[in-house]
Each structure stands twice: as structure tokens, then as C-alpha cells.
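We give its fold:
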Amino acid sequence: MTSLVNYFRFIFSGYLRKKKVLNGVKVHFKYRHDSEIFDPITMLLDQFFKINMVKEEFRVKVNHNDYDLSMILDQLEGSKPKLGCVAKLPMGLLKVERFVVKDEFRTTSFYLIQLDDELLAFLHKKYDYGRERLSIIKDDIFGENQIDESIFRNEEEPILFDYNNGQLLYLEKFVHSHIFYVNQSDSFYKVCQYFEKISSAG
């Protein structure tokens, strides 16, 4: 019966549905037939761990935020997610969606993360073999402002940009350039600490 219900849901919406329990959390998925289900909790905890492991010399305080968030999010306009999932948490409804979007002449993966319909964070995998890493720093993050490029030339070291408004930007070259942008650091930490707590309890 479940398979039949899923079939009709797919016919009318183009999405299949599934419920899974991940690390003690009920997660409801909605996905295209050609998409693989991923673990959003592990994804967020991985980013949380990476942010906490950034070496002190590669943590950069930024007093101005020239990163054009609207330009990034505009890429998603008119796009439907390949996969979406929601989970009810004590701090609100967590929603994670995966998009495949065009970035110039290639496709990229974009994970949009929301808490109670407010932007919490996003992960952008650019599939550029790291070629755009320095230009992301110079053009997208600092814009017209002068920077000392010396600490950014070590491509093996991830960098954390800490803005004075509670936002964070984690940049690494993991084969490709990966950007993890945190729009609300306090809420992000609370979500991840909750996941850590229930994972250790299990």
C-alpha cells in the first residue's frame, strides 16, 4: 500500500516521500526519483566540527560584510529542489533542501538550510577544483577592501571568516571550493549541540 501511495504522490507532484529516523530524530524526506537521500544531521555536524577545528591563525575577524547573500540566493529563483527534508526540533522546524543549479558553464550543488522558514545556513559546492578559492576571498568576501593575501595562499588550510553581526563563512578546498555560510551562528550552534547531545545519548 505504501508503494502505491508513493506512486500516486509522484505522479501528481514529481516527488517521492519517505520517513527515516536519523540519530534519534524523525526526518521526513521529499525527493525526486533520481535523487539519493542524504543525512542532513551528519552534514550539519560535519560543518560544525570543521568550523571548530579551524586553526587560530586562519580565523579572520571581518568588520564589514561584503558577501552578497542575495546574489547567491537569487540563483535558486525558479528552481525546484532535488530533495527536501524537515525535522521538528525543540528550537523550531528544521528544513534542508538540495538544489542543482547552473553556475556559469557547470552545475553546482547547493544546500539551503532554514529554521522556522528563516535562513540558517547554506552549503555551496562549486565543483571548480579549487580554482576560484582566492577569487571568492578577494572579490566576494572582501570586495573593494584591501587584504593581506599571504594567509590565504595556503590552499590546504580552511579559513573561517567571522563577521561582527554573528554570521560566519567557512571556506575550504576539498577537491573543489566549498562555502558554508552561517546566517545565524547562535541558532546554528544550538541546533548542532542538540544533535550532539542526542547522538551521545543514543
Notes: The radius of gyration is 18 Å. The chain has one domain: 2-201.
